Amino acid sequence: MLFRSVSQSRYVLSVRVHVVQQAQLEFLSWEDVRLDTELVINTTPKGVADNLPEGSGVLFESLYDPWPTSLADRWQGKVISGIDLLVHQAIDQIHLMTGFVLDRNLISPILKTAALAELKDRK
Question: Which carries the bigger pLDDT value, residue 29 or residue 99?
Answer without folding.
Answer: 99
